[in-house]
Amino acid sequence: MRERRSPAPRCALAAPSRTVGIVPFVGTARNGRNAGFTLIEIMMAVAIIGIISALTLPNVSRYLENGRGKAAAKSVADAFNFARAQAIRTGNNHVVFFAVSGAGDVAGNALTAADGRPMPILVLNDGRPGSADQNCEIDAGEETVVFEPQEGVGWGHNSAPASEEAPDDDAVTSIPAAGSSFFEPDGTTQATWVMFRPDGVPVAIDSSCTAGRLGTGGGTIYLWTDNRDYAVTLAPLGGVRVHVWNSGTGAWTS
């Protein structure tokens, strides 16, 4: 007879292990020490970071500068379009003032926000034509809208030659040094403002708030940054175009 063998005892399956919490990183020690960085490696890393920064920071700075220039040009265009739309909507004269060379309104009042901060652009709701307060001056209680300044942006031109006025700037034959090619109704006195009538048409005004005839309200505001110039042109009938000086081609582009 064969001897009956007892079945071999079954081994219990080990319960799966689970690590809870942070799993430590297992590395190989160098030279019998804990892993780390040598002074030479740290110096190399610092040198690489310096090289990368030197290559990228100028591009970042120029990118930010271009953004501020575009924002400033957009503010000028927005001021024209806003004043025109509001003049049509309300039936009131609206005047756009620019603080070119520190200029204010026709009486010399500074262009400021409600908190007193100086502003480069201000739109004034000057009231109904012929009304008592319709004087092209910033009177107490009158509605104004201001546009914030942009750091590193100035009036005038930098990259564009003075002889290269904007292509649709028919008011001048060269870029005005101050940055504004708007004129008073006499056509010879430079101005830093323009008025929109209730029909939305821009017209020139003088320091006495005397309005010019149809077609006198066209002009251009020129802006500069360190690397790029902008020209925002208001057509005699109220259209607005923004131009950018392209140093590579030596011409304005829209």
Task: Describe, in short, the structure shown.
20% of the residues lie in helices and 20% in strands. By secondary structure, it is of the alpha+beta class. The radius of gyration is 34 Å and the shape is elongated.
CATH-scheme architecture: 3-Layer(bab) Sandwich
Strand-pairing-aware structural class: alpha+beta
- How many separate structural domains? 1
CATH topology type: minor pseudopilin epsh fold
Gyration radius over CA: 34 Å
The fourth-level CATH homologous superfamily is minor pseudopilin epsh domain
CATH class: Alpha Beta
Identify low-pLDDT runs: 1-6, 8-30
Strands of the widest sheet, in order across it, are 3-2-1-7-8
State the helix count. 1
Q: Quick one: overall form? A: elongated
Describe this protein's structure.
It contains one helix and twelve strands. It is α+β, with helices and mostly antiparallel strands. The protein has one domain (60-253): minor pseudopilin epsh domain (minor pseudopilin epsh fold, 3-Layer(bab) Sandwich), CATH 3.55.40.10. The strands form three sheets. It has a five-stranded antiparallel beta sheet, with helices on one face. The chain has a five-stranded antiparallel beta sheet with strand order 4-9-10-11-12, with helices on one face. It is elongated. The termini are far apart.
